[in-house]
Amino acid sequence: MDVGSSLGSSTSASAGGGGGFSFMQNPSASSNGILPSTPSGGISLQGSDMSASELARVESLAVQLYESVDQKIRSEAEAALVPLSQAPTNVPQCLWLLQNSQAPTVQLLAASSLTKIMSTFTSRLSV
Question: Which residues contact residue 117 at a Cβ distance below 8 angstroms, ignoring those fewer than 6 apart?
Fold first, then answer.
């Protein structure tokens, strides 16, 4: 599955019933670009740092996205992870995931998200 091209336009979702992500589309609303979607079980990044349990949650969702044979599980994981690739404010989080996760599926997710962000938003930059 090519997550860079398959990521949709959802801005928040949950997978597996354990909370999810909420990525902000308005960068002026928060300096880190990501807020927890639920008080319990949500993933919250402070700056571009993430707790061990949050990293484990992202790793679990990435494995579900890339390795599950169940279409429903893959769809739920994709819905939870899709917002990562939708705003330039998520670049620090993608870089953090690349630097701190040893999981190949998370590295693929972060690299694909960075590629999508750069290909979508660099055309809007002025020189």
Answer: 85, 86, 87, 88, 90, 91, 94
Question: 3-state class of 14 per DSSP?
Answer: strand
What does the alpha-carbon distance between residue 102 and residue 114 come to, in Å, rounded to a whole number? 17
Taking only the tens place, the pLDDT of each residue in 19-68 is 444 443 333 333 333 333 333 344 544 456 778 889 999 999 999 999 99
Q: In whole angstroms, give the CA distance from residue 81 to residue 61.
A: 8
- Give residue-wise pLDDT tens across range 12-33: 333 344 444 444 333 333 333 3
For 94, the 3-state DSSP assignment is: helix
Distance CA 8, CA 86 (A): 9
User: Can you tell me the distance from the alpha carbon of 12 to that of 73, in angstroms, rounded to the nearest whole number?
Assistant: 16
